[in-house]
Every structure is written in C-alpha cells, then in structure tokens.
TrEMBL record, chain A:
GO terms for cellular component: mitochondrial inner membrane; respiratory chain complex IV. It comes from the Eukaryota. It is a single-pass membrane protein. InterPro entries: Cytochrome_c_oxidase_VIc, Cytochrome_c_oxidase_VIc/VIIs, Cytochrome_c_oxidase_VIc_sf. This is Cytochrome c oxidase subunit 6C. Component of the cytochrome c oxidase, the last enzyme in the mitochondrial electron transport chain which drives oxidative phosphorylation. The respiratory chain contains 3 multisubunit complexes succinate dehydrogenase (complex II, CII), ubiquinol-cytochrome c oxidoreductase (cytochrome b-c1 complex, complex III, CIII) and cytochrome c oxidase (complex IV, CIV), that cooperate to transfer electrons derived from NADH and succinate to molecular oxygen, creating an electrochemical gradient over the inner membrane that drives transmembrane transport and the ATP synthase. One of its GO terms (biological process) is mitochondrial electron transport, cytochrome c to oxygen. Gene3D superfamilies: Mitochondrial cytochrome c oxidase subunit VIc/VIIs. Component of the cytochrome c oxidase (complex IV, CIV), a multisubunit enzyme composed of 14 subunits. The complex is composed of a catalytic core of 3 subunits MT-CO1, MT-CO2 and MT-CO3, encoded in the mitochondrial DNA, and 11 supernumerary subunits COX4I, COX5A, COX5B, COX6A, COX6B, COX6C, COX7A, COX7B, COX7C, COX8 and NDUFA4, which are encoded in the nuclear genome.
Length: 77, 183
C-alpha cells in the first residue's frame, strides 16, 4: 500500500524541455522542405524554363489572331 | 467553482430551463403561485448559493463531501476517523471514501455511449438541413445568370487561353497550344 510519491513539480518545464526541441526541429525541416523541394525552387525552375523558349512576338501574334485585343485586330480584318 | 463548470451539463441545468420556459409559455398568473407540481420540483433543485459536490477529473477535492446528512453509523465512523488510521479496517476506509465521494476516478473515466447520441443528432440535423437546402434550391432561388451555361463557360475558358492567363504555372500552362488540347 505504500506507493512512491509521484512527481509534483517541474511538470511544465519537463514538457517544454521535451517538446520545444522537437517543435523547432520539425519547423526547420518543414521550412527547408518548403523552400528547397516543394515550392520555391520548383517555381523558380518553372519560370526559368518558360522564359528560355519564350518568343514574345510570336505569342503576341497568336493572341492578336485570337481576337482578344481592341487596339490591334486580327490581320484578316 | 465546481458548480459553475458542471452546471450546463448537469441534470439541474435542464430543470432550471424547464421551469423558466414553463413560466414564459403559460399565460396564467396562477403558474407561479401554484402548489403541487411546482413544489415537487423545489426539493430536488440544489441551493446554488452553498458549496456543491461534483465528480470532475480536474477537481479532485470538491467543495463539499458527498454525503452531508450522516446517520448514526456514519457519525461513529467519522469519530473513529479522527484517531489513527491504521486502526480502520479496509471496509471502513472504503465506507469513508464513499461518504466523501460519489464516484471513483475509474468510475468517472468509464466510457459512455454518449458519442453515438451526439453523432446521431448531428447527422439527423444535417439531413434535415439538406432537405431544407434542396427545397430552397428549387422554390426560392431565382433563375441562373447566363454566365453559368456550359456554352458560356466554354467560351470563357477559350478566351482565357487566348489571353494566355497564367502561362507559367497556371491555366494556360496546362493547355497544349500546338495540339489544341489539354496536356
């Protein structure tokens, strides 16, 4: 019937000492993953690839033929 | 403290609600002065101005012992409690515990089937709401604007593709301009 006295103090401190490093580590990992792999680098790459083969005049003429501009009509009219 | 936290869920809460609603609903002035039914309730309702007992996991020592009207046997036990405790038998210790508390922690922690009632109620009300929304979409909504027609939507998307909307990562990037189809 004599149980050991349970820990009464320092419970919050113990919890923080355990969880804060994990929280920081996970946040840093998430940030690095977001930056390097999932969002920023792929997006930069997508833009770089797009503009490598981009011919502005050709695109403009295609858009003009589609008839969306008001200042310059398709070459047929 | 006990009483404020437990009140809304406690059985006394619904009693209070019942009496107030009754007083509002019945127009006769005799309701408040009536005997019989009214008085039958009074003895059951707790006096909120005095400390109350509660079974709460986060309040190990309630404001009051569970049994405060002790009969003669309980009183002698309480007297014996004032002496050294290793002279109490196991049954006496348990009896003292039961005088002080209604439920033990394991009894408090026992799982109930309340969640089934809750989920059932949620689904019932969601279903009723769904029926209401359906009726509403047939009888209340005005005619749809022409911009919702599939023809109009198709022309809209074609115009967006012509304008090269979001050509890097968005809409126009998903369209193959050479083949005239989605990638």
């Amino acid at each position: 019937m004599s149980l050991p006295k349970p820990v009464m103090r320092g419970l919050l401190g113990r919890r923080l000492r355990f969880h804060l490093p994990i929280a920081f580590a996970l946040s840093i990992v998430a940030g690095a993953a977001l930056k390097g792999y999932t969002v920023t680098e792929p997006r930069k790459q997508a833009y770089a690839d797009f503009y490598k083969q981009y011919d502005a005049v050709k695109e403009f003429n295609a858009m003009r033929e589609a008839g969306i501009f008001e200042s310059v009509r398709p070459s047929g009219e | 403290m006990c009483q404020m936290l437990g009140l809304t869920a406690g059985r006394f809460g619904t009693r209070f609600l019942g009496r107030r609603v009754m007083a509002l609903v019945t127009p006769s002035s005799a309701t408040m002065a009536s005997h019989g039914h009214g008085h039958a309730d009074v003895s059951e309702i707790a006096d909120m101005s005095k400390p109350m007992y509660c079974d709460r996991m986060d309040t190990p020592l309630p404001d009051r012992a569970y049994k405060d009207e002790l009969n003669a046997a309980d009183k002698t036990l309480k007297e014996k409690e004032k002496g050294p405790w290793n002279q109490l038998t196991k049954e006496e210790k348990i009896a003292l515990y039961r005088l002080m508390f209604r439920k033990t922690y394991p009894e408090m922690k026992q799982k109930t089937d309340e969640w089934k009632t809750v989920m059932g109620g949620i689904f019932i009300f969601l279903g009723l709401t769904g029926l209401l929304v359906w009726w509403q979409s047939i009888y209340v909504y005005p005619a749809q604007p022409r911009t919702f027609d599939s023809e109009w939507q198709a022309k809209q998307i074609q115009r967006m593709l012509d304008m090269r909307v979001n050509p890097v990562e968005g809409l126009a990037s998903k369209w193959d301009y050479e083949k005239g189809q989605w990638k």
